[in-house]
Amino acid sequence: FRFIAQALPGDATVSARLASLTNTNPWSKAGIMLRADTTPGAAYYALMLTPGNGLVVQYRNAGGAVTNQLVQLSGPTAPLYLSITRTGTTFSASTSSDGVTWTAVSGSNIPLSGLTGSLLAGMAVTSHDTGHLATATFSAFTI
Questions:
Q1: Are 47 and 104 in contact (CB under 8 A)?
Q2: What pLDDT is stored for residue 112 in this prediction?
């Protein structure tokens, strides 16, 4: 797992274009994430693309809690624009093929009481295979 991020002090929309992801495992993931901190097991909300299982929205509402999968949609592939909007403690996800016209990810809107205050917003990638690294290419990251 790799995560590169910057501070997100309050409400915002975070977006990036995911150009590619290596297929090291059907559950390899790359996308955007809002995270409480960089410790393992930190609370987070993420919109991730996988090579074998489509688009997923996952979250952990408290540090050390179990990760939950809120949405799984088959079909989307890279390149794809990804977006997360934070309003207070409510999070939602959208996708776009061109970065202009956005479509809400149905079922992605959720309040998370464990994600308050300043968060980290950035791009994440994981191979889902401890023996292999995954590579993702991103561009157009904005907050």
A1: no
A2: 96
